[in-house]
Design goal:
Elements lengths: L17 E2 L2 E2 L19 E7 L5 H4 E3 L3 H8 L10 E4 L2 E3 L4 H8 L3 E8 L7 H10 L11 H7 L19 E4 L15 E4 L21 H29 L10 H14 L6 E6 L18 H22 L6 E6 L20 E6 L6 E3 L19 E2 H11 L5 H7 L29 E4 L6 E8 L2 E8 L5 E10 L2 E8 L6 E8 L4 E8 L1
Parallel strand pairs: 3-10, 3-11, 7-13, 7-14, 8-9, 8-10
Antiparallel strand pairs: 1-2, 4-6, 5-6, 7-12, 11-12, 15-16, 16-19, 17-18, 17-20, 20-21
């Protein structure tokens, strides 16, 4: 079997050890997850849209076009060209591939996903999304890394073995995904091209390892080298069993996903794959100034849409359609108002897609509300906390108990109906209509407004957000009795402008605009 030589060792004591160009400290130490149901053979494929995707240009709220035209006329897609999912909502005209998945009930669109107190830094917001932490908490582990750590605290000792032969997670690219970062090591193995995988040189290490810090690092290096070579064999064998390389398509994301499809087809037991596409950081020249339907963002959306559709076809043809779930994510959306460079700046919430034969198809959430007077820095208000989507996947896809999920993510997560169910996925436990509505009056308001809502006996959080996504007031957070309720909102200390009231219960939420005069 051919293997690539990509590690040269001249001095263990003085030269940083690199594997595939990555420091050894960042290389995966993997295993096959064993704390989930032994019958669970589910696979999750993450597609990271790097740079911050303009959700308002991807998913078009057609009922908001009058106000959008006032602030986006330099980039706004023609309403007549939208690919309609329903009369008031459409996709960018380049996304015909996703429309085909929507029509075949294999696509879930989740509106306005974000988190409280939106951070608009690429680096910090990416950390938040990959770690599954709050904006106020710095977490060094990834949300999937914590998931893996539950039963693998002794890793890498003894891995791989007969019961755990495969990498748990694979990132197609040169850097491992931070979603899979554990407290000691990353559980994701980075590969670029399985067809050219090659062995690492294994120098003549000493037979006796000293019980010192140097000895500990040396043992880790030895284990990592051996593990990497073992995993190289497994990956190469699976790739060859599926027929080897698929011809390049000219779509970089589809080429990555084709690698994933081949590894799945070849029998890999890896449960998580991560791929990426970018950059969506479209501060300038987001579209052609004379034809808004073409340009940088349109090209990216076409690649994304075509790649997801092509991948789903490959998965269906391989007979694995009930085992594979896909999900897109990006660090933030863009601002509602376009800038003077035919682009958009860093914003707040944005839509997400889940895809596969086991999604609960359709649209979750309401169209974002666009006011008549949008401020320069205003972003789309959050409807869904991204951690609730993670939680719902862990529970309904990987069969993790809600008690463990609350430890891995946060206690106030919502169980969202994103998975319809594919055996042996756990049975859905939705015992109520997924709806929660309320009214604010007066609206617009000057000094006071009232909030009227109805709920069951359950946990409820009522918050006020400003236009940039910061949670500025918490009106209520705790268990509340069933029935109709009314609360006063004091607006005296707020400046005039656009605000949003969000009510979230254990399984539903609603976000509505509030104007302070």
């Amino acid at each position: 079997m051919k293997r690539r030589k990509f590690l040269q060792v001249s001095s263990l004591a003085s030269v940083p050890m690199l594997i595939n160009g990555i420091p050894v400290s960042a290389v995966a130490r993997n295993s096959f997850l064993d704390f989930v149901s032994p019958d669970n053979d589910k696979i999750l494929v993450l597609i990271q849209l790097t740079g911050g995707n303009d959700g308002l240009n991807m998913v078009l709220p057609l009922d908001q076009y009058t106000n959008l035209d006032k602030v986006r006329n330099k980039i706004l897609i023609k309403e007549s060209l939208a690919i309609k999912l329903r009369p008031d909502l459409g996709l960018h005209p380049s996304m015909t591939g996703l429309k085909s998945l929507y029509d075949s009930s294999k696509l879930k669109l989740i509106q306005s996903v974000g988190y409280p107190n939106q951070n608009r830094s690429h680096f910090r917001s990416t950390d938040i999304w990959t770690s599954g932490s709050s904006a106020e908490q710095v977490e060094t582990t990834g949300w999937l890394g914590r998931y893996y750590m539950q039963n693998h605290n002794s890793y890498p000792t003894g891995y791989p073995n007969m019961d755990n032969p495969d990498p748990l997670a694979i990132t197609v690219g040169s850097l491992v995904s931070q979603t899979c970062q554990g407290s000691v090591a990353n559980f994701s193995l980075a590969i670029v091209d399985p067809a050219t995988l090659a062995p690492l040189n294994e120098p003549a290490f000493p037979t006796t390892i000293p019980t010192t810090n140097y000895g500990n690092e040396l043992k880790y290096l030895i284990d990592t080298l051996k593990q990497t070579n073992d995993y190289t064999d497994v990956i190469k064998d699976a790739y060859d069993a599926a027929g080897g390389a698929v011809a390049a398509t000219g779509n970089r994301l589809l080429d990555q996903l084709n690698i994933v499809a081949q590894l799945i087809k070849g029998g890999m037991k890896t449960k998580v794959y991560v791929v990426s596409i970018g950059t969506f950081d479209t501060h300038a020249n987001q579209c052609d100034p004379d034809d808004h339907e073409i340009g940088t963002h349109a090209d990216l959306l076409k690649q994304l849409s075509d790649a997801i559709a092509g991948f789903q076809t490959a998965i269906d043809q391989s007979g694995n359609s009930k085992r594979v779930l896909g999900m897109t994510f990006s660090e933030f959306g863009r601002r509602i108002k376009a800038n003077d460079s035919t682009g958009t700046d860093h914003g707040s919430a944005a839509p997400m897609f889940l895809f596969g034969s086991c999604v609960n198809p359709g649209i979750l959430g309401n169209n974002p509300s666009i006011s008549a007077n949008v401020s320069n820095d205003e972003g789309v208000a959050m409807q869904y906390d991204f951690r609730s989507i993670y939680a719902s996947i862990l529970i309904d896809w990987f069969e993790v108990t809600p008690a463990i999920v609350s430890q891995l993510l946060f206690k106030e997560f919502q169980k969202l109906p994103v998975i319809e169910g594919c055996s042996p996925t756990s049975v859905k436990d939705y015992d109520r209509d997924f709806s929660l509505d309320f009214e604010t009056y007066p609206n617009p308001a000057q000094e006071y407004s009232k909030i009227s809502f109805e709920t069951k006996d359950e946990f409820v959080r009522i918050s006020v957000y400003n236009s940039i996504g910061s949670e500025i007031q918490i009106l209520y957070s705790g268990r509340i009795s069933s029935g109709k309720h009314e609360m006063n909102l004091n607006l005296k200390d707020l400046e005039s402008g656009n605000y949003y009231v969000r009510i979230a219960s254990e399984s539903a939420q609603k976000t509505k605009a509030l104007i302070k005069l």
